[in-house]
Write a structure and sequence with these properties.
Strand content: 5-15%
Distance between the termini: 27 Å
Shape: elongated
Largest sheet: 8 strands, mixed
Strand order of the largest sheet: 17-14-19-12-11-20-10-21
Radius of gyration: 33 Å
Helix content: 40-55%
């Protein structure tokens, strides 16, 4: 059973690459064509116009797209058999169920369409995904829509942020190590009874080599049966995995398939590891025909060789540098080996630490003396029982440290009040009238305390490497961006980044020479009035006034040119877009009303609460995946500790019965069992905190950060202690059954 539980989790972990690949393939099939659609696709009977309509509801992501057929035989995305007509909705089964619920009135109003069908599995990332396609009749390429004639085109994906890749590598190593430790511990269950059987076999003529082969064969059979049982558990769970959703992650059963290489490694590696551990455990036992001698010479555990793996792991990790000269890349094998070696120090040092500490314990209440004496005689078993949880706690602490600084980089909350939330709104291919209308609707939305939006465009400028930002709007709109004073149509204003603004940066003399100013020549792409000397050049007039930008929840103020509508027609600007922000009351209702307002104006507009939307989304997905995997690993560790505890109690059945027969109180024995578990746990969690913070420090050094929350170990350490307490409580009923006089019987 122990091996079966471990194999189940290993098979699930081996299926993760296939799950990721399947989801990427589905995402590519439905969105790849739009992501890479060239601008010169001509209208045909197969063409379809599409526009992003992604949204969020109650913290969950909604995948959405507006579709408009242009021909008689339009291409259809995966999961659809036809393009929905204007006003029609085709939704995922999960979204259909959500829309039918009483609490989704705001979402029904936002989507505002008649449901005419459901999306098939081939068009969804998972059975619980919220997704929809909505028919439209007002899409055009000039307004930001993309034209495609087929779906499933390959897209050039941006590589994941190296820091996020580091998180993935560390998370995999941290989550798999406790499973491997558990399997190695499980094959040693029942070792004392096995040794007695081997002594009986020696009595009837087996030599030492035969006895060892029998022990290896017995373990091999148990490992093979566990392997088959674990495979059956995996297949059984695979059937129902589509109904399970952890941290907004759901997968189709067909996607949960281990890769051939990893599957073969598990099938061959688990039995081989079991046999190796068994042979290694027999090194301290002399099996003779008339009995056996266990550890005839008690040798103190040595410290020096136990320090070599963590030192080696640290040496592998220290050269990795993602903040300086590392070039933004690293060897995944090197990092994985370094993390595994460093965390193995917890497993190797714990038995030595427990032996040294309990060897010095003397006196105390009777329950304490029984517990400490048992630990002094057999501290190895107690250490092995908690080694899995200590590695999990150490790894969790390191991950939390790394997560905390990465997430802090994705969030800018310095401008937020405690009762407010800040959202940024961006929309492509906007117009002046469109942006003015949306800004007004944002301000009038219930629950919005402040809002601002304007039309902007980034243009090339002679002498400016990064170009210049052009903001166009009425005087009322410009007053929301800067202190412009008197204003009338035809005015131009300059907003340079100066000391005291939100950037907190003072430009150097070299920088001030590379800034937009009067006379700066801005390169335009649109048509200019007839008779202009240079059709694509606009020069900032000498009458432009320098003004100061107003503080903005965006958290920064870039140098920009503010112009009124008559100065420069918007059609001459390159891809003008809407850029705005809104402050809302910190409650879900206000946020959802704001999303509805933006969706009604243009579903393709994006709303986010993070400075870097893509990285924040990747980080959120990774965080949820790690949390879901952590739950599975903690459940496995809890099961392993329960099995280990019951096995130890079963091996001590006669001892417990003798103590009860001599008048020892059951409460005293129960307390002694609790102390026997508590001492290794306290020492193990303390060691895990040290190693977890040490690994976290090394990882922070890799990404060039030191401003982490060094108290993040408290929840992880508390979870480890709570799990131990729960396992002890579960084992108490079994302990009471062990403490009976009939336990003295023997054959």
């Amino acid at each position: 059973m122990g091996v079966a539980l471990g194999v189940t989790v290993l098979l699930l972990a081996a299926a993760v690459p296939e799950m990721v690949r399947s989801q990427d393939t589905r995402e590519e099939a439905r969105s790849g064509a739009f992501n890479t659609a060239p601008a010169d696709v001509e209208r045909s009977e197969y063409s379809v116009l599409g526009k992003d309509a992604n949204n969020r509801w109650d913290g969950r992501q909604l995948y959405g797209r507006l579709l408009q057929a242009e021909g008689s035989s339009p291409a259809t995305p995966p999961g659809l058999d036809r393009i929905p007509a204007p006003g029609e909705l085709v939704v995922s089964p999960a979204l259909k169920k959500l829309l039918a619920s009483p609490g989704a009135a705001e979402l029904r109003e936002r989507l505002d369409g008649k449901i005419t069908g459901t999306i098939g599995d081939e068009g969804l990332l998972g059975p619980s995904e919220l997704a929809f396609y909505k028919g439209a009749d007002d899409l055009s390429v000039s307004q930001g829509a993309k034209r495609v004639t087929r779906f499933g085109s390959p897209a050039d994906e941006e590589p994941m942020d190296p820091v996020l890749v580091l998180l993935v590598v560390v998370a995999c190593a941290v989550l798999i190590m406790p499973v491997a430790i558990f399997i190695a511990t499980a094959v040693r269950f029942g070792g004392e009874q096995r040794d007695v059987r081997l002594a009986a076999l020696r009595l009837v003529g087996a030599d030492i080599a035969t006895a060892r082969r029998m022990a290896a064969g017995e373990t091999l059979v148990g490992a093979l049966v566990g392997l088959l049982l674990g495979g059956w558990f995996f297949l059984l769970g695979r059937v129902f995995i589509g109904d399970v959703q952890l941290f907004d992650i759901s997968v189709f059963p067909a996607d949960v398939t281990p890769g051939p290489a990893l599957g073969l490694l598990i099938v061959a590696g688990v039995p081989a590891t079991a046999v190796a551990v068994t042979i290694f455990a027999l090194r301290g036992v002399a099996i003779e025909p008339l009995g056996l001698v266990r550890k005839s010479q008690l040798r103190r555990r040595r410290l020096l060789w136990r320090l070599l793996p963590p030192v080696g792991g640290t040496a592998l990790l220290l050269p990795v540098d993602l903040a300086g000269g590392g070039g933004g890349s690293f060897s995944e094998v090197q990092v994985t080996a370094g993390v595994v070696l460093l965390l193995s120090g917890v497993v190797l040092l714990l038995p030595w630490l427990v032996e040294r500490i309990v060897g010095r314990l003397r006196g105390g209440p009777l329950a304490w003396q029984l517990a400490t004496r048992r630990l002094q005689l057999s501290s190895g078993n107690a250490s092995r029982a908690v080694s899995g949880i200590t590695v999990a706690v150490a790894g969790a602490i390191a991950l939390q440290l790394l997560f905390s600084v990465v997430q802090r980089d994705q969030e800018h909350n310095e401008h937020l009040q405690r009762n407010e939330s800040r959202l940024s709104i961006w929309g492509p291919s906007s117009t002046l009238a469109h942006s003015e209308a949306l800004a007004g609707k944002l301000a009038r939305t219930e629950g919005v305390t402040k809002a601002h939006g304007h039309l902007q465009a980034w243009q090339e400028a002679r002498g400016l490497e990064n170009g210049v930002e052009i903001v166009i709007g009425t005087c009322g709109t410009l007053r929301g961006a800067a202190r412009i004073g008197d204003c009338r149509d035809g005015d131009v204003f300059l907003v340079p980044p100066t000391a005291g603004q939100d950037t907190g940066m003072v430009p150097t003399p070299e920088e001030t020479g590379d800034r937009v100013g009067r006379g700066t020549e801005v390169i335009l792409d649109g048509a200019s009035p007839e008779g202009a000397k240079e059709r694509n050049i606009w020069q900032v007039p000498d009458s432009a006034r320098t003004v100061r930008a107003l503080p903005s929840p965006h958290g920064h103020a870039e140098g920009a040119v503010l112009i009124t509508p008559s100065v420069l027609p918007q059609k001459r600007l390159e891809s003008p877009s809407f850029n705005g922000w809104a402050m809302t009351e910190r409650n879900g209702a206000a946020l959802e009303r704001l999303r509805t307002t933006v969706f009604e104006v243009d579903p393709s507009y994006t709303i986010w609460e993070s400075a870097d939307q893509e990285a924040a989304a990747q980080l959120d997905t990774l965080r949820r995946a790690v949390m879901a995997a952590s739950v599975a690993v903690l459940l496995l560790i809890g099961a392993s500790m329960t099995v280990s505890m019951l096995e130890q109690l079963r091996e001590r059945k006669r001892q417990l019965s003798v103590l009860v027969a001599f008048g020892t109180k059951r409460s005293t024995l129960g307390a002694s069992v609790l102390w026997q578990t508590a001492v290794p746990v306290v020492l193990g969690v303390g060691l895990a905190v040290i190693f977890g913070l040490g690994l976290g420090w090394v990882l922070l050094r890799i990404v060039g950060r030191t401003d982490a929350d060094w108290l993040v170990f408290l929840p992880s350490a508390g979870a480890g202690v709570a799990l131990i307490a729960l396992v002890t409580l579960v084992s108490l009923p079994f302990l009471w059954r062990m403490m009976r006089p009939d336990g003295l019987r023997t054959e």
